[in-house]
Structure formats: C-alpha cells, structure tokens
Amino acid sequence: MAKSIRKKLTERVTITDVAHTAGVSKTTVSRYLSGQYHILSENARNRIQEAIRELNYRPNQMARGLKQDRSYLIGMVIADITNPFSTAILRGAEDVCKQRGYSIMVCNTDNDPAKEREYIFMLQSRRIDGLLINTTGRNNQFLRQLAEEHTAIVLVDRKVPELGLDTVGVDNELSTKEAIRFMINRGYEQIAFFTEPLEGVSTRQERANAFKDILIQYGFPVADLYEADLQQAEPLLKQLERFLESSREGKRAIFAANGVILLKLIHALKHKGLRIPDDVAIAGFDEMEWTDLIGPGITTVSQPTYQIGVTAMERIFRRLEGDHSPSQNIAFAGKLIIRGSTPSVKGL
Amino acid sequence: MAKSIRKKLTERVTITDVAHTAGVSKTTVSRYLSGQYHILSENARNRIQEAIRELNYRPNQMARGLKQDRSYLIGMVIADITNPFSTAILRGAEDVCKQRGYSIMVCNTDNDPAKEREYIFMLQSRRIDGLLINTTGRNNQFLRQLAEEHTAIVLVDRKVPELGLDTVGVDNELSTKEAIRFMINRGYEQIAFFTEPLEGVSTRQERANAFKDILIQYGFPVADLYEADLQQAEPLLKQLERFLESSREGKRAIFAANGVILLKLIHALKHKGLRIPDDVAIAGFDEMEWTDLIGPGITTVSQPTYQIGVTAMERIFRRLEGDHSPSQNIAFAGKLIIRGSTPSVKGL
DNA sequence: TTGTACGCGTTATCAA
DNA sequence: TTGATAACGCGTACAA
Fold this sequence. Notes:
Chain A is α/β, with parallel strands linked by helices. Helices cover 43% and strands 16% of the residues of chain A. Chain A has 12 helices and 12 strands.
C-alpha cells in the first residue's frame, strides 16, 4: 500500500491550545463546547469564546465521536443517486440532519448487492448512528447485524418484512388501484403494466399485485404485465411491440410502475413515431419536472418524496433518542395528477 | 476482567478483542489491518483473519482517523442537490471515492452563503481530506483557511480566481459562442439571453459575456440580456413578456444560461400558450433526460457532468498524494445538441 | 517477526 | 465552579 507522507502545513489547534490561551483547563473548555453554560463563570465563558475565535478553533469530531461512541453520521444507501426520486428524498433527509448537526454520507449501489454490501461494511466502520436505505433486499443479514449494534435503520421505499424495521414510503396498493381504476373509468379496455424486475423489490411487487387485483375486480384478463430489465433497451422495446400488436388503438393504455421506466417508455414511443394519447395513452408513477411538458402532459402518481425523506430521518432520530416501540410502516398517500395523456375514450 | 464486563455492556468489538482471540498483540492485528502482510507470519495472518471473521470485527474509522490525522472523508458542497447537473457530478465523484475507500458527505446550500459557511465549519470539524465545492463565492476567507489546513479543494463549475484553487468545469465562453453563433447562422435576428443573477457566479458571467461578445461581433445590438431571480415566478414572466413584445415572431429566439432557467422558461411559454419553435425558438445550457421529448426536442449545450465529477475528484486525490504543482483550470468542451426547437428561419 | 508503551483530541469521573 | 486524570480504539516508535 503506497502511502504518501503528509506534511503538516499548519499545526492543528486543539482543545488544549484553547484552554491554554484562555487560562482554564481542558475540562472547562469541553463544558463550553457542549453548551453547559450554567456551570461556567461569566468570566471563563468569555475568555474561552475569545480564545476560540482568536485561534480559529474547531473541535475534532473524530475525537469526540471516538470518546462518545457516536459519529453523528447518517448513511444513505440509494440505488441510483441520479434518479430525481432519490435526490428529493435525500433533500428532505439532509434538511433534518443539518438542523441536528448530523451529516449524511451518500452511497450509490446501482442496485448491485455486492456494492451495497461493501457500503454497509464501510458505514459500519464509520460507526454511523443511522442508516436510511433503499435496499436491494439481498444483504439482510448484514442489515440485521447493523441494527444489533447501535444503528437506527429506516427502510425507504422498499420493505423487507423479515427485518422488522421502520419503513417509510407511499401506499403502493392504494395509489396503483386508484390510477388503474381511473383509467378503466376513462374507458380503456386493455391496460399494460410495465415494471422493472419484480424479484426482491417490494415496491414493484405491491404495485404489480394491485394492478392484477383491480383488473380481476373489473373482470378484465390479466394479460399484459411486462417485466423489463432496463440494462439494455431491446427487451423493453420488444415487450412494447408485443403489447401494441395485441391491442386495439383507441382503447389501450400503458401504466409505468416508476419514473425510470415511464421515461424509457415515452422514449420508446417517440422512437416508434407513436403519439400520446392518439396512438396509446400512458400514465405512471412518479411526478417529475418534465411530466407536464411532454405532449399533452403525462398523468402521474406523485409521491411526497421530500416528506418521505424528512419522515424517515425523523424516525431515525426518534430511535436514537431511545424510542423502542414496535417498528412502524409509514405509508403516505400518493396523489394522482391527471393530464392529457389519458383522455376519456368512452364514446369511441 | 473489567474488559469482559464492558464488552457485555457495549458489544463493541475492538482490535483488542481480535488480538485476544487470535492470540497475538494489538500491534500485529494493526499490521494486518493496514495490509503489511510481509511482516506477518503465515500463522499469525491466518489466525487474525479467522478471529476477525468470527468476531465480525470492523475497524473503527474514527479511531484510525484520529490517530492518522486523516478522515478519509470528502465534503461535497452543492447549491442544489436536486439539480440533475449536480447529481451527475456527484455520481462521478462518488465512483472515484468508493474505489479509494473514501466517503462523500453531501451538503446542500441553496446558494445561501450562510448555509455554506455553516457547512464549511462542520466539514472542518470533521477534518475532511478534500472538498469539492460549487461555491457561492461569499466565503472565500473560510475556504482559504480550509486550504491552509490539509484540505484539498477543487472548485466545480464556479471559479474564484483570487483563491488560486484547482477548478473543473466546462469552457463556457467557447460553448456559449458556438451556440449563439449557431442560432445566428440559422437566421435568428433577435436573441434573448436569460440567466440567474450574475453577481459572484463566474459561470453565469462567462456565459453572459460570451453572449455579448458574439452579438457585438455580428453587429447585433445587445438589448436582451435578462437577469432573473427565480425565487418567485413573476420576475421571469415579466421579462419574458418584455422580450416577446419587443420582438418579431419568426426571427426571435431565447437562450437559457442553464438547465434550471431553461425549464422555467419552457414552463412559462407553455403557460402563455406559446409554441416552440413556431412562436419562439429556444435553446440553452444543460442536457437533461427530457430535452429530447419536449415538443420538437430542445437544442442544448451538453456538459460532460459525470466526467467533471470524476476529474474533480481525481485532482483532489492527486493533491492529497502530494502534488504541489500550480493550480489547474480544467475546462471541458461542451457539446451542442441540435434539435427541433431551433429550426432554420433563413427563408422567412 | 512480534510486542510494549505512548499519544491522537476529546469527554467523563471524580475530587476539590 | 473548576481541574487532574483516565479512558475511547487505534497506529507507531522503539525494543526485543
């Protein structure tokens, strides 16, 4: 291992230096730092304040953490940090953390269990106090291990029932049913459901199941549930073609199980020269900054992402503060935003 | 004795525990941890490995960091983490960090100098080894302070010449000129430039100046440079109306200085019922996932964001490895992506 | 090849 | 209201 020698450009200022120039002991300075002003004399307090400013002192968090067995660090493990859904959650989580003096370490897994595991190890080494994770579901034993140490874990978006952890997300069944029911009521008679691979991802499963349930409830055949791996573009295109060939223009619609696949589908439609909603209607999960700008506007199920991030983070802090109540499953209501991509076709 | 009691209470596995169960000293374990295998007997090495696995030991990074005066932490201070431009950079930076065992702490400033300052202090407390920052430009003295400690700082996107720091971004002058020149060649005779407030943000200034320069070069009057504060929607709308009233249909175009304002402008146009490009042509900085889907597709200047993140991070590591060469200013070429929002209007 | 002893910067415990 | 001292978990001279 090639290590480079680091030169000390500036000697680091320590609590001892502050104590020295303020003419008090380290202990007293430490008390000042942790805000125990009531046991400090006016005099000591002022001199310490002055010394800190003069020396430009910043307490060393590593030393504090080591001593206190607390890092004031939160890990955030996400499948894809470039997904706006994830960043909105991060935004919410970050706001709550900042306010409490915690920092967030971001980890991008690409849905790869191996990467996720590496990150969990790293975060464990850093003694993170809390973890907010959108998990692949393939590293449950390590998550359980983490939870057994002092780490407060909250699962975001994806549940893993066997872990018995707090979960925050949206009510997938409710929202999916509302959306599909809406499309049926608008007169669509053949609705395709496109999702990324279901295995291991509760969110996708819940939405797919809700889709099936509602179709059955309305007496429709469940013929068009497509699972597409988005690594390559081909599979999705093929499945889309299959659906288009098997359906009649005018009464058909597509529902996308999340924002990523919704975007891909819109791209594919454009690529094939198909118009929305004339050739095919479309709707799907995840409101994004562009959904009202594409064609006649895309009908979406909007998730309160920022709120999800805030809530997840608040659960973490509650746990850190000693709340040992049974694990909660917090599901927000999604909001169906109706736009031109799913017009009524009843008269046709 | 006291040790075993403490262990039952806290359950934290330390290097001492590993040493005990492996039957060696802490030092030997430490050598193992830092990969100095050549000074370890086969026997010791195996026993340590086994002990680590058995106890599920993870070295405490806070302790290591404290001892080594290194945190293996990189701070990333960004104006808006939900901006796809920022997350793409983060993605690149993160990939490089992961590979080296570093972690990234994200800090969202909302372009607020006060928030930025708070974050700088916090990061200083954490003894970050490196900082990647998209700065407001209003906390230069604190950045200078950080740089004087052991922190390698790289400015991303926005420069601050007086700090003499490494900078990574895109060649704003070149790309802006190319884009405006392209629009002029396509026959547009009145081009408006919309930007967020110029003050203190080099990127915006460079683009605005390039815009002015090229107009002058072609003998056009520089009448339509609009600085809009996007906190409220009103100002932008008013300015847009001013431009539309002062210009003739058919030969007018809008250029947006970044992705955020480009999106707002497209929204505003839609809101006013104006069509692209029939009523007004439009182009702007920042390629986004939706730019090819809006109307006839939006002409954009694409920045190699992922590459910017990677490069910035690599500069940081180079500095940490002892590179003391003069500060670099790395400017990538942007790429003009021509789409239907800026058709040729020469014949009109 | 291995181990002993000390120190990193901070907080907690106790005594004054 | 203060301070001396012992940890926290690890790495590293120095010794063996």
